[in-house]
């Protein structure tokens, strides 16, 4: 039963990085819409933010399998 609860806990904790990634790319699209010439700089920052948010999700699934 513990393994099932760990995976359910991971599913709930994946909501945070999902929302974070959505906010990052929403800000990226809004920034490019306002100033298209800054696309390269904003794209680099958005991808870095995406990677950092995704690392939280990967870390969470690793812990879910360790503790199950």
From TrEMBL:
Record localization: Cell membrane; Membrane
Keywords: ATP synthesis, Cell membrane, CF(0), Hydrogen ion transport, Ion transport, Lipid-binding, Membrane, Transmembrane, Transmembrane helix, Transport
Membrane protein topology class: Multi-pass membrane protein
Protein name: ATP synthase subunit c
Presence of keyword Membrane: yes
Cellular component GO terms held in the UniProt record: plasma membrane; proton-transporting ATP synthase complex; proton-transporting two-sector ATPase complex, proton-transporting domain
Chain ranges passing through the membrane: 6-33, 45-67
